[in-house]
């Protein structure tokens, strides 16, 4: 009676490349004629034999069949582990693991493919650039941008360097993710316009991503950059700028200055990107005067500040509650044709409104809207809260309607401000209307809103409505 053990023995007897076709024929015959349902090990032995004989199409067909059979398995590396286990007894070839990873990728099991890649490498096998490109291509088609960069970073760490096909895939990924222009702008500030090759764009993107995630120590970032330099994948000016930026981002300002001085000694010129990195660091530390000194030095050297440079100053001034400096930086920015980021403008608006200067904040918004600025719901929330504190209900409602016009969804704080303001102005029916609007949205009225309305109705002598709201509030608290 034919069983799995006997099938394995026969296959191993036929492991010589000259017998590979016979091995494949026996594998299929035992399935059809003897109703043997092959296990993973039988599949893997047959695959190894076919790979050893360079019958790669047949090997790929068996791999695909095996992966479809085992894709519900709880162990993502079970097939890889079994292939490793019978690798030596079949005199196979390392390309079998490339075929495995490519097969996973083609089945769109990209996460599993990368996990298997790491597992196989841990056991001493190298993965080819073709396999990495296959994995990157499928991940890019599936919009798996995080995975794409994890794979690419791993490639560089393992000294598997990109070719033109790799770079094309990575550029496409940057385009689809909406990140290409951001990287090109950063490189323009380092190297000047039109000097960025696909290699420089992709590898600079990798470093920026690593820094933004904060998952790598400075020494590892420098090692990554040195590898890219050794292969001429980025120019020295970009490498120096990114190392300085890395040291600053990782909190080592003094170390950043040391690298900057070394950069100048070697004949590389400073650039707007480096100055902006230092200005941002000083602003984050609350050292706004030093940031301003650098801004002046930057302009004296003929280097143009850009949007992010001013954004750092606006946020720096705002955090120190130096509102005149905030407004001055914003006005200077506008005078040279730049507009602040939503984050920096919202930070400024928040501080202005908190200090009672909501009119100045609103007038700046009007000016910016004419220049193409796109406010967020946070912008309107701060302004509504600012006007509500002054009980200027017409301005509050005007901003609320503007939010609706822009298809923004007012949050809890907006409704709280509107209802409190209406209650303070004695317009309880209008306040009730906004409570009703709120209930029609996926927002739960807060206890603060209920208490404001209850107090307003009691003050007016409407005890029945106040009691009804009290009961609603109590049920809300119990439910929570």
Task: Explain this structure.
One of its GO terms (cellular component) is chloroplast. This is Pentatricopeptide repeat-containing protein At1g66345, mitochondrial isoform X2. Residues 252-363 form the PROP1-like PPR domain. Keywords: Repeat. It comes from Arachis duranensis (Wild peanut). With 480 residues, this protein is an all-alpha fold. The chain has 4 domains: 1-127, no CATH class; 139-247, no CATH class; 270-375, Alpha Horseshoe (Serine Threonine Protein Phosphatase 5, Tetratricopeptide repeat); 387-480, Tetratricopeptide repeat domain (Serine Threonine Protein Phosphatase 5, Tetratricopeptide repeat). The protein is 73% helix and 0% strand. It has 27 helices and no strands. The chain has helices at residues 4-13, 20-32, 40-52, 56-70, 78-85, 95-106, 110-122, 129-141, 145-157, 164-176, 180-191, 198-213, 218-230, 236-249, 253-265, 272-284, 288-300, 307-319, 323-335, 342-354, 358-370, 377-389, 393-405, 412-424, 428-439, 447-460, 463-479. The longest helix is centred in the C-terminal third of the chain and has 17 residues, at 463-479. The model has no long low-confidence stretch (mean pLDDT 90).
Q: What's the quick description here?
A:
With 480 residues, the chain is mainly alpha-helical. The protein is 73% helix and 0% strand. The longest helix is centred in the C-terminal third of the chain and has 17 residues.
